[in-house]
Amino acid sequence: MTTQQLTEEQQNVHNYLRGQGEKYSWLDLWPRVLRPRLDLLAQLDGITAEQAEARTSADEWTIMEGLRHEIAVTRSTLHIVERLSGITISDPADEVDPAELSFEELRNELMRNGIQFGQLAAALPEDADLEPTHPHGNFGDLHCRAWYIFQRIHDVDHVNQWRSIRESDDFPAA
Predict the structure, then answer these.
(1) Which pTM was predicted?
(2) CB 36 within 8 A of CB 77
(3) What are 118-159's pLDDT values in tens digits?
């Protein structure tokens, strides 16, 4: 999807992501990315593996499905940011398929890749070239810092999703 094919809402998000990435340094962006990740982890507090698998709506993911997705997207975003900025701190060979992980292992992996994101902010050059881009399926071509702040948007969406699942009348008691 090119930037010209975006809906008005998608274009607004595209402009926000690119604008934030152009305005702020990596270290300034890091707390903005970290807070939603901590909120995600807080949504997992007190949840059992059985509750994480509970489907509260036919058209919604379970927390477990969202957790697997969240890890996959974070890894992908990390690799895109690395590629666009010309630095590598992660090794895809060390990654385990989220489908093979238990709930507790997934929770730990969510923490680990959140830590990697923080390390990335400290390792990247402040004068990173913002010209190279990589297309996002919904928000068009994004540069490295725009991709970095995208993770915040993605995490916030899943914080809200998991909160809604937990607050559902159909969510099982512990």
Answers:
(1) 0.92
(2) no
(3) 899 999 988 889 999 999 999 999 999 999 999 999 999 999
Domain ranges of the chain: 7-46+61-167
Structure tokens at 148: 């970095």
CATH number of 7-46+61-167: 1.20.120.450
Contacts by 62-67 with C-beta closer than 8 Å and gap 24+? 62/165, 63/162, 63/165, 63/166, 64/103, 64/106, 66/158, 66/161, 66/162, 67/98, 67/103, 67/106, 67/107, 67/110
DSSP 24-46: S-HHHHHHHHHHHHHHHHHHHTT
In contact, 27 and 36? CB cutoff 8 Å: no
Is the C-alpha dihedral spanning 90, 94, 100, 106 positive or negative?
negative
Give the H/E segment covering residue 57. Answer: none
